[in-house]
Amino acid sequence: MGTRCVPARSIQAGSRFGVLCVLSVWLSAVGFAAGEKQRTSENDERLKRWLKIHPDADANRDGVLTMSEARAYREKAKARRDRPEGWAGRPAEPDLKDHQYGPHRLQALDLWKAESDRPAPLVAFIHGGGFRGGDKRGVPRGLLGQCLKSGISFASINYRLTPEVSFPATHLDAARAIQALRHRAKEWNLDASRFAATGGSAGAGISMWLAFKDDMADPKSEDPVARQSTRLTCVAVSNGQSSYDPRFAEKIGLPGLDRHPFFFPFYGIKPGEADTPKAHKLYEQAAAITYVSKDDPPVLMDYSYPNTPVTAKTSLGAIVHHPRFGLALKERLDKLGVECVVQYPGHPQGERISQFDFIRRHFGMAPKKAQ
Predict the structure, then answer these.
(1) Complete DSSP assignment for 63-96
(2) DSSP string, 221-279
(3) Which residues have CB under 8 Å from 249's CB, separation 6+?
(4) At 26, is the secondary structure helix, strand, or coil?
(5) Which of 236, 237, 290, 363 supports an S-S bond with 355, CB 3.0-4.6 Å?
(6) What is d(CA 216, CA 230) in angstroms, rounded to the nearest whole number?
(7) 265 φ, ψ (degrees, to nearest 5)
(8) How far apart are CA 150 and CA 120, in angstroms?
């Protein structure tokens, strides 16, 4: 049988799995029997790019990536994905499935409850997919397993998609889901004071928007759910956009954002309206970076792409998921004294921190260091 790839719309754009899937198809196509010994990053452009993005694939650290090393790296990554740390022994099905937080079929969430004799903190996963695809079933199983093993409950959220709706409906759905979880906190043994959000691409953008926007709770509402807070303790995301404003993107060296298929349906505008006051207002309202302030929660942003200049050959996927979105946000948050960690292949910072460790630290659950 040939290599099976998940449809592109069901994969978070820019995710490592998506890249590995493309590599898998290519490796199968070129064939190892005939070319494995001859093809290396020195004479093959795809292997050269792969080595640049994933330098740890070079097993013998000789600076040259061979076909056999690429294949071994792919298999190792696949094994990690299929058998993530902390997943063993946990039920695959959520404790609460398809709980409706609104009337639409996509206004639903799943909840895995941590085994805890006290209210457990919660991580909410918001899926990616360009606001037009994806599903809560794409939960990151490794992170889910680590959370449950450590006494952290986990929710996965669906929200309405374009073109049926446009901004701000997508983001307000996620906010409502957070409020619904807080409303049931006592019933579901959740610590309402410790909620974090995670997700990739579109899910990352929504998570950051929730993190920076002022609390949307309405204390005077007759709706008990609407009275709940939307604030988060921290955010740990992948391949996220701090803004979907094409003018902002161009300023930071990322032209062409409005060429991506997500763009016009997301804003609910037509191409002829892209440079109008109506569109400009939407750009500001949808950008997480618009709302940053000194009381915002800490943020971790991981990227699959290196911080390389955009050229005519750069793919739209690389532009939309470029680490410069994170670096621009970090520059703004650093000035406000808000912690913002940006990680990408080849980044100059020190030792990397995982999303789980970042969240656990800000939940006050980091393990004590040995004396």
Answers:
(1) S--BHHHHHHHHHHHHHHHHS-TT-TTS-SS-SE
(2) -SSTTTTS----SEEEEES--S---HHHHHHTT-TTGGGSTTHHHHHT--GGGTTSHHH
(3) 243, 255, 256, 257, 319, 325
(4) helix
(5) 236
(6) 6
(7) -65, -35
(8) 10
What pLDDT, in 10s, does the model give residues 44-65?
Answer: 888 887 777 666 677 776 778 8
Report how far residue 347's alpha carbon sits from residue 78's, in angstroms, rounded to the nearest whole number.
24
Provide CB contacts within 8 A for 337, sequence distance 6+.
294
pLDDT of residue 36: 44
Q: Coil, strand, or helix at residue 141?
A: helix
pLDDT the model gives residue 46: 83
- Rounded to the nearest 5°, which phi and psi values hold at 300? -115, 130
Place of tokens 């299929």: 82
Long-range contacts of 21-26 (CB under 8 A, 24+ apart): 23/50, 23/70, 23/74, 24/74
pLDDT tens digits for 109-130?
999 999 999 999 999 999 999 9
| CATH numeric code, 96-362 | 3.40.50.1820
Which tokens is 333 given?
A: 């948050």
Q: Which two tokens stand for residue 209?
A: 């928007």
Question: Token pair of 82, please?
Answer: 């299929």
pLDDT at 71: 82
Q: Which residues of the chain have pLDDT under 70?
A: 1-37, 53-56, 61, 76-92, 349, 368-371
DSSP assignment string, 310-337: --TT--HHHHHT-THHHHHHHHHHHHHT
Phi-psi region of 339 (alpha: psi -120 to 50; beta: other; left: phi over 0): beta
Beta bridge partners of 78: none
Residues facing residue 120 across a β-bridge: 190
Give 54's DSSP letter.
-
Intervals of CATH 3.40.50.1820 along the chain: 96-362
> Do the bridges between strand 108-112 and strand 153-157 make them parallel or antiparallel, or are there none, so unpaired?
antiparallel
**Cα–Cα nearest to 288, from 247, 240, 250:** 240
C-alpha 202: how far from chain center: 7
Read off the amino acid at residue 114.
A
> In terms of C-beta density within 10 A (0-12 exposed, 13-18 middle, 19 or more buried), how is residue 138 classed?
buried
